[in-house]
Amino acid sequence: MILRRDTQEDDTVIAMLAAALRRDISFGALLPDQKLKLQNLRARYGGSNHSMRETLRVLTAEGLVEATSQRGFRVASATEDDVRDILMVRTEIEKLAIGLAIDLGDVAWEGRVIAAHHALRKAETRVIEVSDDLAALEWDEACRAFSYALIDACGSPRLIDLQRKLYNQSRRFRLAQLRENQLDFDRRCTRQKALVDAVLARDSTAAQAVLVKDIKSELQPDI
Description:
The protein has helices spanning 2-26, 38-45, 49-61, 80-104, 107-129, 133-151, 157-179, 185-201, 204-216, and strands at residues 35-36, 65-67, 73-75. By secondary structure, it is mainly alpha-helical. The longest helix is centred in the N-terminal third of the chain and has 25 residues, at 2-26.
């Protein structure tokens, strides 16, 4: 029983550390290709050598961290080729997932999509009006919740897991656009409403077309 409790506590610590590092990678506090030394990370985030090493393994599996040949770790690279590759795979995964969700989703799923869209609209209004880290974090979480809601009725845990990993890998590119004032929020609003309308109309073709355009906007903000 004691062993189980220790394991659960360790898992909680790892989840908290992973969330903190995931956020800082996404927001650019940890830079692409930056070496991640256990001692420095523990001084900054806490945790033991074991929990931090396990955290880095979790983030390696998510594609946010890379293990080096010297058995160390570094933040994953973020070249234009990386962006293109991530978004290409995201496009195919999310097209399939939203098509399945539209076929399988019930009224409760429609309600979750509507609620996530409403929360995203409020977060976007706030991040436009208030340029600070808290507003950016709330907006980022709202973006993620909307993206997850769109596919969470697809009926495939593996598709959902892949989408979440790829979405987390692309977060830092979208957040960089936010920091550099490259986002066209009017166009984003139009696409988001079109997505919700297509979901409610159960129009897979329209939903997939808008979703592809929305994902591509993370590489080409002006589309």
